[in-house]
């Protein structure tokens, strides 16, 4: 088997028009979002306006990271010390981290083999814990039945905040991910769907919620310089009651992102072509389960996951090692210790220990892989060949 030589962490270069926009900001010396002249709309405010229009939201706040957007959304909703916040048992550390940042307690909900929230367990945990909010993680771009979820939350009067770090541009039945609850939280970290190194976006249709979020982000009394903010009168009391927890996006990152937004839809199609090529090949492999994608879901296939329900830990380690020898980087969510960006709830000792037998059984057989747009379709076919090969070899050895 010929090794693959591509890099799983190499993103496409920043486009020349984005570089030119960044250079213009650097030459101006005005990197701070409020360093504007008269009625000038700076790059951050322009990005807020453009992303709100793309998302179909009334309001948008640009901030320092997706994690900051989540913590700010929780604070703006009034979540604080001792409150219980539901979230997925399968997610990445910034999600429980945002809950810990506001002093709340994370309550983890089981997932299904399709890597989405188990709505039956969610209802049981709502009844048992009386949560302040559900912080839904659309982990690795998988959307649950959003209409069923919203109906369930409405029955119990539980607000919804969506972590859309992996679903920027995704939708359910034509409705954008991030628009089903009071807020959508997005990331523009390098490995997400738009790349500014670090960065975040928070969207909402609720004026008071967004006014609190803007004040929390560190607007001082310059909230009228935002591109997609509620009217000034909404801030009248909120501006005096809300602390400043500075987390503003700067003009340099916003300038880089503005031009990328226009390419997002095209890039989603490019990601999905690569993802589907690999997924279709892996669906035919014995011992492998590829999560089902419902017809209602328009996903963004910037990563690929598959499960091996019957494989033991030795087999999983063998697959990861053999793939690595052939140049393919797989992450195993069932490993005993966290590695790089990959961890599971067993290693989050800053939240209460929780019993998640269904989720743990799934994570024990879950493998994950990035799909950067620097890969061609031919590259993805090569990667798929390697995956089929190493999985087949590992299963044969395990059966011997």
Topology:
Layout: H1 16-28, H2 43-55, E1 59-63, H3 66-76, E2 84-88, H4 94-101, E3 105-109, H5 119-129, E4 133-137, H6 146-156, E5 160-163, E6 171-172, E7 175-176, E8 183-187, E9 200-204, H7 207-216, H8 235-241, H9 251-261, H10 264-282, E10 297-298, E11 303-307, H11 313-325, E12 331-332, H12 357-363, E13 366-370, H13 377-399
Parallel strand pairs: 2-3, 2-4, 4-5, 5-8
Antiparallel strand pairs: 1-9, 6-7, 6-10, 8-9, 11-13, 12-13
Helix pairs in contact: 1-9, 2-9, 3-4, 3-7, 5-6, 10-13, 11-13
Short recap of the structure:
The chain has 400 residues and is of the alpha/beta class.
**Distance linking N and C termini:** 22 Å
Number of domains: 2
CATH architect. name of the largest domain: 3-Layer(aba) Sandwich
Overall SS class: alpha/beta
How helix-rich are the residues, as a percent range? 25-40%
CATH superfamily of the largest domain: Type I PLP-dependent aspartate aminotransferase-like (Major domain)
Strand order, sheet with most strands: 1-9-8-5-4-2-3
> What fraction of residues sit in β-strands?
5-15%
- Uncertain segments are none
Order of helices and strands: HHEHEHEHEHEEEEEHHHHEEHEHEH
Number of strands: 13
**Level-1 CATH class name of the largest domain:** Alpha Beta
What composes the largest sheet? 7 strands, mixed
How many DSSP H or I helices? 13
Would you tell me the overall average pLDDT? 96
Overall geometry comes to globular
The radius of gyration is 21 Å
Q: Any idea of the CATH topology of the largest domain? A: Aspartate Aminotransferase, domain 2
Write down the oligomeric state. single chain
